[in-house]
Specification:
The protein is α+β, with helices and mostly antiparallel strands and 59 residues long. It has a single domain, classed as Ribosomal Protein L30, Chain: A (2-Layer Sandwich), CATH 3.30.1390.20. The chain contains two helices and three strands; from the N terminus they run βαβαβ. The protein has a three-stranded antiparallel sheet with strand order 2-1-3, with no helix packed on it. The mean pLDDT is 97.
């Protein structure tokens, strides 16, 4: 299964509670932190909610 590298590039401060929960659920805790997840519809949906806060790359 394909992997995605997700990097938080903008802060979640001042964002909605739902967006903060999505960022936390992705495993992101600080700026410029990178995590890897499998490319699945669930992860893609989460990324659609916070696309303005993260950078997405194929791993």
């Amino acid at each position: 299964m394909a992997k995605l590298k997700i990097t938080q590039v903008r802060s979640a401060i001042g964002r909605t509670a739902q967006q903060k929960k999505v960022v936390a659920a992705l495993g992101l805790r600080r700026l410029n932190q990178t995590v890897e997840h499998d490319d699945s519809p669930r992860i893609r949906g989460m990324l659609a909610k916070v696309s303005h806060l993260v950078r997405i790359e194929d791993a």
